[in-house]
Amino acid sequence: MKIMNCPFNGPRNSSEFTCFGPVRPPIDPDTADDAAWSRHMFQLDNTPGVIREWWRHTPSNYFFIAERNTVTDEIVATYEPAALHGKAITPKEITPKEIMP
Amino acid sequence: MPLTLLKYGLPGDHVPTRDIPPTPDLKRSYDVAIIGGGGHGLAAAHYLSKYHGIRNVAVLEKGYLAGGNTARNTTTIRSNYITNQSIRFYKEAVSLYESMSHELNFNVMFSQRGQLTLAHSDSTLRSFHLRAEMGRHNGTRISVVDQQQVRELCPHLNMDMGGQHEVVGGLWHEDGGTARHDAVAWGYAAQASGRGVEIHQRTEVQGFDIAGDRVAAIRTNRGTIRVGQVIQAAGGLNEQVARMAGIELPIRCFPLQAMVTQPLKPFLNTLVSSANLHTYLVQSSRGEIVIGGGSDPYQLAATRSTLDLKEQLAHGAVQLFPFLHNVKLLRQWAGITDMTPDYTPIMGASPLKNYWLDCGWGTWGFKATPVAGKYMAETVARERVADILQPFSLKRFETISLINEMGATAASH
Ligand SMILES: Cc1cc2nc3c(=O)[nH]c(=O)nc-3n(C[C@H](O)[C@H](O)[C@H](O)COP(=O)(O)OP(=O)(O)OC[C@H]3O[C@@H](n4cnc5c(N)ncnc54)[C@H](O)[C@@H]3O)c2cc1C
Q1: Which of A18, A38, A70 is facing B300, going by the closest CB pair?
Q2: Under CATH, which number does the domain B112-174+253-339 receive?
């Protein structure tokens, strides 16, 4: 894994990225008991194989999702976090102008 | 030891013996099965057979003896942690190393040279004061030292780091030291097999037969065995082995890399560590400089190593000792470490009644080899978790009573 394809900035050197660990399934704070909270906080995906993780392109502070194979150390896919919430994965055209005031 | 040397050294007719017998066939059943033939599993086997009279024991090792993290670690032994529970535990680890060569009749080359951790900022120094107070309170030898004392302890150290990481003081831990990792594992293996423990190399645990809340049998690539009790000490694969038994562990795998240089004349007596630079160094008895540092930046289930980490370690080493700049690297490697959220191991009971955990040793478990073995054996023999192990239970994650040792483990050793 040398190059990562940032959904916002395109392919960049992997040293520009920071990993924020596996995506956690959502939890309902109104109904979750202690055991559920414990699992939510501490029981993260350790499957040897493809896992889904939060990553950040550090210089632009852009957060996104990567699917990565933890055995071969290969990136399978990268996409915007919106896709996690059931929205279509569209490589939307965002220009830096739009997000900067 | 010295008498033995005379006895065997002078006559010249001493016949060398094998340290451990060849792997026998698996029997149908064992009182205790130990999953993992690393330092921890072998130490538990030693204590079970020597102090609890339990000898119908099988150590199941999927590869060769102690070829996991025991073979890959940088052998830092220390007790300068920050919580009472940890310090009490690791303090006993250090004291067991002091008598280990005698206990095992095997020279483990324990060298108690002291460990110096460097502070490059006032805030680090403040946290060192806390660690020193906690350590002294628990009866370990530890103190905060100033720049002048750092210079005296480690005369070749580059103190100003070009102004970037100026050394402002340190944490001096006189109890710290190193030992030879292979000797530790082989010493325990020789003792245990001498008392009848069977060591099964190339024997991989592939599944469990569970009956109610107990493990009835273990399935391996060489056959199935019935078991009375089980100790799991599977190193980097702990999370995966537990999952086969239906037990969820809060563990993720990260590679940890290290390297050694060509041998040099002795110049570095203490162990030196810098959390800011994520680098620590020790000169081995062969003269090689062993260099270690922080874990990889993301999880992985493979022992590949990277140029990035090598550059980072070399950078730290050259900052501390600039004259190392043209020294050549001799070997480099990685191990998969089983990391817990609070940088503290998981020991004791599991949801299965006869299945005991010795897991989550991450980047810091070599030093705990004797003490974990001693109390895991006691736990199994009495079928009750030893008092000193109680705080390290798996249950602590449910009750959110974590034992945070992240700060005291920052340069991963
Ligand atoms: C680069 C590096 C540097 C380190 N430096 C230090 C240090 O300075 N100080 C320190 O205290 N600690 C250090 N550590 C951590 C230390 O090495 C480990 O915590 C310790 O060695 C763990 O010992 P163990 O016996 O539990 O595991 P291991 O030695 O890993 O033994 C576990 C064994 O279980 C076997 N196994 C796994 N799955 C199965 C299965 N299904 N069936 C049968 N057998 C199986 C494996 O093959 C392995 O041999 C370091 C680790 C690394 C990688």
Answers
A1: A70
A2: 3.30.9.10
